[in-house]
């Protein structure tokens, strides 16, 4: 099996010399430490640096690791207010590096791994959270047809489709019984809201560590990791990010649940949702408990897949993948506390 930590640099240089305008070698590559899905690398050359993202080797779950979709959506968003890196090329010929890959510009800035933002000032934290809120509203306001993304997702009830998809993914990667997960899947099926017809471009993994901020100001430069993007319900993105207000800030989790958010300058969940609603012209978010519970479920299903890939030996970071899998019953349990009215 290919080693996701390394790339055939000679093969990559030969390919780029033929397909990338202005490319000059030699090059060297270094895998970024973060990420559990599609391995990502810094590509250094004398003239410029780039970022390469590829599918991992080995057997992949159906519809997983869709780098072609990532490339397409970021390229489509280039002329919109949504901040994304510039896409340079995509290679779907597995013979070059063993799996498909794409190349994009290298955006220089900060990745803020901890949503508590311990190194920021009170005003800096408030500004960063407002920048994320504004970017989410911009994303959900994209004219889908004008961006050429009218066929980027299937019609119909987004939550119903996603519940079916991630239930199937979870069962395909299940390694041990998780009773809370079984109860959660059943509850979501029973509580599924009627389709309200609301459709937007959704990111699917909207959280602070999938963003790059300017080095010296709270300005969002790039939104990354679009593997799960599709046409769907915008409230799913909002609820997914708002999970962080409920998760602890310890161990595997990077949340805000145990922090004095008011003293830190971080808005409450209610304030963050209200600011989003103001930007979108909404009176509120119906079925909020369902949206949150669904987000816990989907994250748990994703982490179960990460754990399965680690056990199968084709994870980007096997040790961390196994650790993240331990969070599955915790997330399912938190969701059931929420729906049963036991959450704080």
Architecture overview:
This protein is α+β, with helices and mostly antiparallel strands and 344 residues long. Helices cover 42% and strands 11% of the residues. It has 12 helices and 9 strands. The strands form 3 sheets. A 5-stranded antiparallel β-sheet has the order 1-2-3-5-4. A two-stranded antiparallel ribbon has the order 6-9. A two-stranded antiparallel ribbon has the order 7-8. A hairpin with a 6-residue loop joins β7 (211-213) and β8. The mean pLDDT is 91.
Number of helices: 12
Secondary-structure element series? HEEEHEHEHHHEEEEHHHHHH
The main pleated sheet reads as:
5 strands, antiparallel
Bin the helical content: 40-55%
Strand content: 5-15%
**Mass-distribution shape:** globular
Mean of residue pLDDT? 91
Radius of gyration, in angstroms, nearest whole number: 20 Å
Gap between N and C termini, in Å?
Answer: 46 Å
Enumerate the strands of the largest sheet in spatial order, edge to edge or round the barrel. Answer: 1-2-3-5-4
* Beta strands, count: 9
Helix/strand class = alpha+beta
Low-confidence stretches: none
